[in-house]
Amino acid sequence: MTALSFFERVYDVVKLIPYGRVTSYGAIATYLGTAGSSRMVGWAMNSSHTHSDDIPAHRVVNRVGVLTGKNHFGGSDVMQELLEAEGVQVDNDQVAHFEKVFWDPGREL
DNA sequence: TTGCTGACCGACG
DNA sequence: CCGTCGGCCAGCA
After folding, report:
1. Spans of all domains in chain A
2. 8-state DSSP, A45
3. A72 CA to C1 C1', in Å?
4. pLDDT per residue as tens digits for the range A45-74
5. CA of A60 to C1' of C11 (A)
C-alpha cells in the first residue's frame, strides 16, 4: 500500500514485536501477503544489520522456534542472551514455550 | 543483463 | 524418522 520496499515492511513488523515475544519468518511473510517468500524475510534480516534502525532480529525465529539466524547475528550466543534478557526462555538454541511467546502479526494486529 | 545465493517452509519418498 | 527437492523474490558480482 505504500512505496516502502519489501525490507522496509519487514522491518516495520519486526519492530512491532512486543517485548518478550517472538515470531516466525513465515508469519511475517504471510502477514505481508507474500506467503511462501519467507526466505525474503530472512534475507531482509540479513540486510537489517546494514540498516541503521534498531531491528530486533533476535525476536525472529523459524517456525519451530529455533534460532536459525543466531550464526549470523554476531557469531555468538548473543541472540539467546538477548531473548533470555527479555524473559524469553531459550533452551539449546530453541525457544521454550514457543507457543506462549509466539506473536502472530496476522492474528494480533 | 544473467545467474547464484539465501537467517525458510512444505511436500514427498 | 530423516534426507532431499522445489518454490518463493530481492540483492549483488
Report:
1. 6-99
2. H
3. 29
4. 999 988 888 999 999 999 999 999 998 888
5. 21
pLDDT tens for residues A3-50? 678 999 999 999 999 999 999 999 999 999 998 899 999 999 999 988
Nearest nt to the A25 alpha carbon by C1': B8
R_g of chain A, CA atoms, integer Å: 13
Note the maximum CA span of chain A.
Answer: 40
* Choices 3.40.640.10, 2.50.20.10, 1.10.10.10, 1.10.260.40: CATH for A6-99: 1.10.10.10
Distance in Å, residue A68 CA to nucleotide B10 C1':
17
Model pTM score: 0.92
Report how far residue A104's alpha carbon sits from residue A89's, in angstroms, rounded to the nearest whole number. Answer: 18
